[in-house]
């Protein structure tokens, strides 16, 4: 399965891959559906599927495995899972979560445009 | 541990809508030293801390000359107080008091009164109009700030930094000015209250962070606690905050403290915007929320006392991110006779037991 590229909307950063998100140690799941960013001091409610994605990444699930696990849990196609995961991560990024601690690891051409199209 | 009961003097006793740190400092110290006798140094008979019989209360309070009266007036008043009370140490809790205490450091030493103060140069280098240089030296971003001794220069710098901007008094008060039309009113209001010059500062929008700590005077930090401000008062003071643990924020704080070789309490205010921290202000005292970390293992005011009295400190715990405080205002009961006594004699004292029994309860 292809690695889902990840671009922060409006950011000049290079695309980072989902793999880089495994270092989300600053995000704490306080309880199901409620996360706390220990660096920023911000807290947010997240959907059940968002909660699942964060828990998986924090638990050490490899980015490459995540869409498969996600697709299986929710009974959706792998392509749809990739898209949902990307949307979730972009959502986290837009509220300042996740991306600040990332280092771009991918230099390949971003496939985001294709997904959006 | 101290062998004899401690007597200390603390200022900044008003816990109003813009709370001063004194009562929080007193309460923190009493958490470690419940037998401590506290003398309140007050500027107004209506400072709320005078009327507290709780653990943040004082056994005696004295009206003090305003800091503007100068060091001699301060020393004279302290000597008058010493005729009634032995004083082991003083914890000044208001920014404007610190220069007088720095000037009088030798005098206090000769009277065996302990103080924990920054070096004069360190104190100067964190002034609002000097922070640009400090930022450059330490690699910490600071907003563009310009000194405006008169209204014309305030307009000049206003057009330079653009609107909205922040107009600040040298020691206190900051006002957001939305347009040139509002500048004159803000300028005169601040200069009337605090004197000139004022500072014209770039308006920075972002999330506000606050770091409280204690410097050892050699560049080290005895302990610190960083929060994100959750609720703000109109004056921008934290009414609620949540502990954060950000290595970048900690690194910036460490660089500043190392550079200044800061001695004593400090508060650093930051704004986080577009992925970067910007230092807004550094205060040479504990903030009013200092009793929050004291309740969960990081008692900085008690560490300050220990540092002054014993020379070493018990290691302080790092506060876990996610612990939070929220301020809860209460109404204290007073009596006009107390106001009268303080107004007419400049002093008020209480049975020590009334405060102690309240603490014990």
Q: Which labels suit this protein?
A:
heterodimer; A: alpha+beta; 3-stranded antiparallel sheet; 5 strands; 36% helix; disordered N terminus; B: 361 residues; Rossmann fold; D-amino Acid Aminotransferase, Chain A, domain 1; Dna Ligase, domain 1; 6-stranded antiparallel sheet; 5-stranded mixed sheet; 13 helices; 34% helix
Characterise the protein shown here:
The complex is a heterodimer of chains A (117) and B (361). With 117 residues, chain A is of the alpha+beta class. In chain A, 36% of the residues lie in helices and 15% in strands. Chain A has one domain (15-101). In chain A, strand 4 and strand 5 form a beta hairpin. Chain A is elongated and about 35 Å long. Mean pLDDT of chain A is 69; it is low at 1-22 and 99-117. A 6-stranded antiparallel β-sheet of chain B has the order 13-12-9-10-11-14. Chain B is 34% helix and 24% strand. In chain B, helix 1 packs across helix 11 (300-309) and helix 6 (131-138) packs across helix 9 (247-260). By secondary structure, chain B is α+β, with helices and mostly antiparallel strands.
Short characterization:
Chain A is of the alpha+beta class and 117 residues long.
* Helix count from the secondary structure assignment of chain B: 13
Radius of gyration of chain A, CA atoms, in whole angstroms? 13 Å
Percent helix of chain A, as a range, is 25-40%
Structural class of chain B: alpha+beta
Q: Count the E strands of chain A.
A: 5
- The backbone outline of chain A, from C-alpha atoms, is elongated
The helicity of chain B comes to 25-40%
The gyration radius over C-alpha positions of chain B equals 20 Å
Number of strands of chain B: 15
Indicate the mean pLDDT of chain B. 92
The assigned CATH architecture of the largest domain in chain B is: 3-Layer(aba) Sandwich
**Largest interface chains and counts:** A-B, 11 and 18 residues
